[in-house]
Amino acid sequence: MLGFMTVTGYAGMTNIKGIIPVLLPPEELFAGTPARFKVLLCNEKKHIPSFLLQLAASDYGTVLIPLIGGGQNLETTLTLTFPERGRHPVGQIRVSSPFPVNFFTRYWSFQLDTPCIVYPRLVPIASAMASEDSRQSGTTVHHGRGQDGELERIREYSGAEPLRSIHWKLSARGDDLLVKEFGNQSVPPLVIRFDRLPGTGVEEKLSYAAWLIKHRVMEQPVGLDLDGQIIQPATGRQHGTRLLTELALYGQQ
Q1: Which superkingdom does the taxonomy of this entry point to (predicted)?
Q2: Side-chain-side CA neighbours of residue 132 (13 Å)
Q3: What pLDDT is attached to residue 152?
Q4: Where are the domains positioned within the chain?
Q5: Mean pLDDT of each 10-residue bin along the chain, 253 residues long
Q6: Mapping DSSP to helix (H, G, I), strand (E, B) and coil, where does residue 170 land?
Q7: What residues contact 169, with CB distance under 8 A and at least 6 apart?
Q8: DSSP code of residue 166
Q9: What's the DSSP call for residue 163?
Q10: Which CATH architecture fits 2-118?
Q11: Cα 164-168-173 angle, rounded to 5 deg
């Protein structure tokens, strides 16, 4: 029996030895929302495979890997959920396995100190507030000349218009070049004023602000007034990340 335990114990420790995990967070993390992290596993044992590996990150989530060959790299995902906003280290990743006989579970632990920025929980803003906001920040069409509105008319090419505005099909039917003329569509900016948001507490207001940013920043300029700290309106993913980071670290910096 002692010999059997010695042999199986050695096989079990060899099975998990040389398994190195690397955890890559997603672009966005919101409190209370499960997020899929990419996990890269490297088996540094060149000729020995590993079986029945289980990855666990603190108390957040686990994933089972049946087999990784000797000297191979394997990519998988690990779903984690953070309960609160702010900076949160993933903490320990534990690589364990019941191999070879399922009597004992052996494990290695790896400490990951790199923090993740977790944004506030997403809570849809109340319908009354949404309707009021839509009156202030809806889409308005100005009848100027531009390239992003509705097609208004076709006219002769004057030489000043960009080539992409030429209507090639109609121009091919005659001797003159014709261009498409569009209206200019502009969307007024939305400035989120933290003190005017509904909600009974700071976390609820932050959740409403995060929802507005998440759903508006790719469509219209969004700015933020956070206790007198003003971030000017802009659009795009990078700007949205900046705004959400300010909300995530509010009161914690």
Answers
A1: Bacteria
A2: 9
A3: 56
A4: 2-118, 127-136+189-248, 142-186
A5: 80 88 89 90 91 80 86 89 89 86 83 86 68 39 44 69 74 77 66 89 93 90 91 91 95 78
A6: helix
A7: none
A8: B
A9: G
A10: Sandwich (2.60)
A11: 160
Strand segments, DSSP code E, in 81-122 are 86-97, 106-118
What are the percentages of helix, strand and coil residues in the chain, rounded to 5?
25, 45, 30
The whole-model pTM stands at: 0.69
> Which pLDDT score, from 0 to 100, does residue 31 have?
95
Structure tokens at 248: 């995530």
- 60: CB partners within 8 A, 6+ apart: 80, 81, 82, 90
Pure H helices in 50-162:
127-137
Query: For tokens 């920040």, what's the residue?
Result: 137
pLDDT for position 112: 76
Which positions ≥6 away from 246 have C-beta within 8 Å? 224, 226, 229, 231
